From TrEMBL:
Lineage of source species: Bacteria, Bacillati, Actinomycetota, Actinomycetes, Streptosporangiales
Stated name of the protein: 6-phospho-beta-glucosidase
Species for this entry: Nonomuraea angiospora
InterPro entries assigned: Glyco_hydro_4, Glyco_hydro_4_C, Lactate_DH/Glyco_Ohase_4_C, NAD(P)-bd_dom_sf
Family under the similarity heading: Belongs to the glycosyl hydrolase 4 family.
MF terms (GO), sorted A to Z: 6-phospho-beta-glucosidase activity
Cofactor(s) recorded in Swiss-Prot or TrEMBL: NAD(+)
E.C. number(s) listed in UniProt: 3.2.1.86
PANTHER family assigned: 6-PHOSPHO-BETA-GLUCOSIDASE, 6-PHOSPHO-BETA-GLUCOSIDASE-RELATED
Length: 433
């Protein structure tokens, strides 16, 4: 079993109790390890620390837990960093969502202008993380869950030698969205998802061992005019049939953008505002559990549930315990393993993980019907990573104009100016107009 020192950057976030509960669920794989919780909020850190210590003790685990607001000291001599934080909190995300709507553009956490602003904020913290690791933990690896995970990884890979791999459950959860919308058994739809994070497609798909698309087309024709509560899933099914490729349902923002824009403009609250309305109750529940002798998280009162970031935890275990687990991950396209993309591009694909590293499986090309938009998003990813790491306002505007959700240069300029001004507290001076 791995006996390692793991820093959790974001250890006081609203997802942190669920993440640490997931670590303790995998506790035997990490027995003897030390966890360092790092965050800006000391009160929240103490709550998460107390919950984790009690869960470890009750499970009979030899786990040490410390907490600090000093990032540099918290990173000292760590073997691994789990990165999952939200710079600017949900208040910044609300700005990401609201301001684009004024300009007739969808505001979203990882897509379009909102996703780009999240990237600019996230990379500033990651850049500090990399500088600190070089000084106090030069052998450490980053296991990243901070969004947008592809742009964060791209920035680190382009500018440092620090090993970083990013994770997202998307390649696991996207095919079932389509299967359920079609009224099919999700376990029988097998699709290999690849591309870039949150923007991947299938390059192979079968249903019960047969070509999936004739079956999906038949289901789409039967269901297309029926009322449904699963509008998102039905759009993904429509897109799968039209493109003959299972999509990430984040592509709904691109292929159904007019409908979704109207829905977002008419909605009384953005997604961030909905989450913020629940935060006080989440933390009330966490405080209750921290005071309990046997903490037990309620999924309904826990941000994201009680098994958070489990994919990253499985990857950490696979690497340090040398298991050879098969998982999806985001790494540079070294050797052109995914045809059609530059070798420097961070791509999302499946592979195995063992003590020697992350080994991607060779990939077939994406269908030509979906390759163009995915390559455009990959170029936007590289441009945004450049702007976030050391770029200027001009670099940021170029990146925003490259995103398919932004309709023109003039909109990109106006949008970036308003967003960056509203978020100046979380951005470096070089990115403020």
């Amino acid at each position: 079993m791995a006996r390692i020192k793991i820093a959790y950057l974001g250890g006081g976030s609203s997802r942190a109790p669920g993440t640490m509960a997931s670590f303790m669920h995998h506790g035997a794989e990490f027995d003897g390890s030390e966890f360092v919780l790092i965050d800006l909020d000391p009160a929240h850190l103490e709550i998460v620390k107390s919950i984790t210590e009690k869960m470890a003790r009750n499970a009979g685990l030899d786990i040490t837990v410390t907490a600090t607001t000093d990032q540099r000291e918290g990173l000292r001599d760590v073997d691994a960093v789990l990165s999952s934080f939200r710079p600017g909190g949900f208040a910044a995300r609300a700005i990401d969502e609201r301001i684009p709507l004024k300009h007739g553009v969808i505001g979203q956490e990882t897509q379009g202008p909102g996703g780009m602003m999240m990237a600019l904020r996230s990379v500033q913290v990651i850049k500090e993380l990399c500088a600190n690791l070089a000084d106090v933990a030069p052998k450490a690896r980053i296991f990243n869950y901070t969004n947008p995970v592809n742009i964060v990884s791209q920035a680190v890979a382009d500018n440092t030698d620090i090993p970083i791999v990013s994770f997202c459950e998307g390649p696991i959860v996207f095919p079932p969205v389509v299967a359920k919308a079609a009224g099919l058994d999700p376990d029988k739809l097998v699709a290999n998802m690849t591309g870039i994070n949150h923007n991947c497609w299938s390059n192979e798909a079968t249903y019960d061992g047969q070509d999936a698309f004739p079956i999906l087309r038949e289901r789409w024709e039967a269901l297309r005019d029926r009322p449904t509560d699963d509008v998102n899933g039905l759009r993904a099914l429509h897109l799968a049939v039209a493109m003959e490729s299972i999509p990430s349902d984040y592509f709904n923002y691109y292929y159904f953008k007019d409908e979704i824009l109207r829905e977002r403009q008419l909605a009384p609250m953005t997604r961030s505002e909905v989450i913020m309305s629940s935060l006080d109750d989440y933390w009330a529940h966490y405080r209750e559990q921290a005071e309990s002798g046997a903490p037990e998280l309620d999924p309904a009162r826990s941000r994201g549930g009680i098994h958070e970031l489990e994919l990253a935890i499985e990857a950490i275990s696979a690497f340090y315990n040398d298991t050879g687990a098969r998982l999806p991950f985001n790494i540079p396209n070294t050797g052109g393993v995914l045809p059609g993309f530059d070798e420097r591009t961070v791509v999302e694909l499946w592979g195995t993980v063992d003590a020697k590293g992350f080994h991607p499986e060779p990939q077939k090309p994406l269908p030509r019907s979906v390759l163009g938009i995915t390559r455009q998003l990959a170029d936007y990813q590289i441009l945004t990573a450049k702007a976030a790491w050391d770029g200027t306002v001009a670099d940021a505007v170029r990146a925003m104009a490259a995103n398919p959700l932004v309709p023109s240069l003039t909109v990109a300029e106006a949008l970036y100016g308003e967003l960056a001004t509203a978020q100046a507290a979380w951005l470096p001076e070089r990115l403020i107009p």
